[in-house]
Every structure is written in C-alpha cells, then in structure tokens.
C-alpha cells in the first residue's frame, strides 16, 4: 500500500512480531513490581542509556492510567513512549498498550505483558511484547534489544535497593 505525500509515493508497511524477554532478579516480586509501579523508582531506571535524563515523565499507575516518557537521544529527534495500563495485578502482572513515536512519526504500537514469578528466593520476570512496526522505522529485533537493556537497568536498580 502506498500514500501520496507532497507529490511522492511513499510505501507503507506493517510488520507484526512477538518476542519474549526473561530476566531473574534476587529480590521478591513485590520489590520488582514496585520498581514498575512507583513513579520515582521507574524514573530512575526506565531511561534510554544514550539519553539518561528524559525531558518528560508522567505516570498514573492504575488500570486506565497513562504513562508518558519523552526524551531526545543522540539522533536529535524527540522520542515519545505513550502507554495506557490495561490490567494490573499487584506483584503478579502488568499489561499495557503503548505507541512509540520518533518526532511526529508513529513507529509502532504494542501490547506488553509483564509477569512477576516468585522463584528460588527471587523473581523471574517474563515480558511478552506483541507489536506492529510501521513503515520500516523500527524493527522487532531493535525493540527486543532495547527491552533487554531496560530490564538489565531494572536489575541494576533493584540490586542497588537491596
């Protein structure tokens, strides 16, 4: 499918993808869940490693609540993470849908499910993302890599709080 834009034909595409990223942390599920649910805690680890000071972070952690995280990494273009919480079960599960924009361009829309499983005195976190990636602006592989980096930052954060 294509679109006429300023006299030029622009190809449109969508790639659907699902990936799962798992991590284990040596703290109880309640502590890992708190790192997601507490706005001050999340602000400390949920950042782009290339732009560690987001210009905007707002979070209303409740079903139907929204989260906005915006920053300007080294590419010079504002990136926006706009999420809506769809389901929350304390210490067990968070489900949210989100869009990611680079400037004014929507690059993807995803559904993310985070499960917190008590395991051997710690937590096994399982994050499943189902995404639609638009027009080649982003890829599932890039997103999976970025998600892994975020979950590693989460690990460093929860370990520093123990």
Characterize the structure shown.
The chain has 162 residues and is an alpha+beta fold. The protein has helices at 29-37, 39-45, 140-161, and strands spanning 2-5, 8-11, 14-25, 56-59, 66-71, 79-89, 93-102, 105-119, 122-134. Helix 1 crosses helix 2.
Q: How would you summarize this macromolecular structure in one to three sentences?
A:
With 162 residues, the chain is of the alpha+beta class. Helix content is 23%, strand content 49%. The chain is built from three helices and nine strands.
Poorly predicted segments: none
Overall shape: it is globular
Helix share bin: 10-25%
Q: How many strand elements?
A: 9
Helix and strand succession? EEEHHEEEEEEH
Distance between the termini: 52 Å
Count of individual helical segments = 3
Task: Name the average pLDDT.
Answer: 90
Q: What would you call the structural class?
A: alpha+beta
Q: Report the radius of gyration as a whole number of Å.
A: 17 Å
Query: Could you give a short account of the major beta sheet?
Result: 7 strands, antiparallel
Oligomer: single chain
Spatial arrangement of strands, main beta sheet: 3-9-8-7-6-5-4
Which percent range describes the beta-strand content? Answer: over 45%
List the helices and strands and how they pair.
Blueprint: E1 2-5, E2 8-11, E3 14-25, H1 29-37, H2 39-45, E4 56-59, E5 66-71, E6 79-89, E7 93-102, E8 105-119, E9 122-134, H3 140-161
Antiparallel strand pairs: 1-2, 3-9, 4-5, 5-6, 6-7, 7-8, 8-9
């Amino acid at each position: 499918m294509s679109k006429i834009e300023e006299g030029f034909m622009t190809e449109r595409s969508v790639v659907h993808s699902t990936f799962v990223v798992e991590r284990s942390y040596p703290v109880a599920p309640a502590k890992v869940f708190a790192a997601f649910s507490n706005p001050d805690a999340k602000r400390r680890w949920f950042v782009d490693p290339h732009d560690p000071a987001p210009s905007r972070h707002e979070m209303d952690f409740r079903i139907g609540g929204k989260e906005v995280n915006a920053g300007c990494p080294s590419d010079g273009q504002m990136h926006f993470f706009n999420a809506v919480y769809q389901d929350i079960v304390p210490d067990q599960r968070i489900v949210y849908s989100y869009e990611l924009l680079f400037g004014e361009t929507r690059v993807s829309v995803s559904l993310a499910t985070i499960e917190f499983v008590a395991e051997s005195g710690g937590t096994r976190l399982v994050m499943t993302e189902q995404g639609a990636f638009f027009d080649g602006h982003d890829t599932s592989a890039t997103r999976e890599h970025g998600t892994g980096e975020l979950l590693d930052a989460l690990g460093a954060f929860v370990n520093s709080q123990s």
